């Protein structure tokens, strides 16, 4: 009779009501219909209200169900037992109509918030899935861009008779802002260079692609470092003029906020004479045949920063057995887990350790040491050009 009266009150309040005479009957109803609100007596024949509540909580549901226990029990231990079993609220019998409506209204607010939160979570999950799809697409594109950027360095090693050039290019991410390369000037001279564009992302990578075209070894007529003489043969601009020319190109044609550092050397393969320009790039290292290491250069402003920037060249002569290493600041400014930079002294130690190695083996050993120093956490792109001078070039092609 109490259940019938309660059901009638709820129906008049606009609820759709399903009745059960026991916990077992209620479980059968809950298996077919997911009720929003459950009012259950504590003491029932067969399954108790506590047992029913536990079984109800164990049932799979799409949403939350608000569970109210009806009881004459007022002891704190009994209330705690009911809450531990999964009950959300209690109503004392006999049930007061106003209190019943107030408790159910509170339950409805909780259910409404749960549904809103569930919908928001669904939207968040959907958005995250879309973002993951975009990220995966960008990641695939960047992986392909990495392959394309690495292809800018078509040759990693070349022997010029009694001299060799080897290149190192390792971006810290998918793509980077470093570029290294070399190109023949004429039968006895080559140009070698290292470039480090500001930043590490896609913009920097695109700029390196543009600069690679300006210094192409396969298309001399497009290489701005080369000029054609009146006799139809190629010669090279003086290094300081090349830096100034690149500075004007970047500021006038590219119209970008990016700038880059540059080290460029015009190398005579017979005499070992090297003519440099250094534009904001780290100081080149010369490892003499006796193993001693010295850093050379005169500094200079980066390219693409100031319209009136001027550049100076400097010269050295390599003896047979000497080698020249042009590196980006990703090497000298590499940091260990404690934040200590490798610095020029640390690089000199690594170069001394690998003095017996040459070419690609030397660069791989150097890269191994840098990874060991940083514990594999490179924060900047790493690049370098190794020029090894073994003596006068005997055969001129």
Describe the structure concisely:
The protein is α+β, with helices and mostly antiparallel strands and 397 residues long.
Account of the protein in words:
- The protein is an alpha+beta fold and 397 residues long.
- The protein has 2 domains: 118 residues, 3-Layer(aba) Sandwich (Rossmann fold); 238 residues, PPM-type phosphatase domain (Phosphatase 2c, domain 1), CATH 3.60.40.
- 39% of the residues lie in helices and 22% in strands.
- A 6-stranded antiparallel β-sheet has the order 4-5-16-15-12-13.
- Helix 2 runs parallel beside helix 3.
- The protein starts with a helix and ends in an 8-residue tail after the last strand.
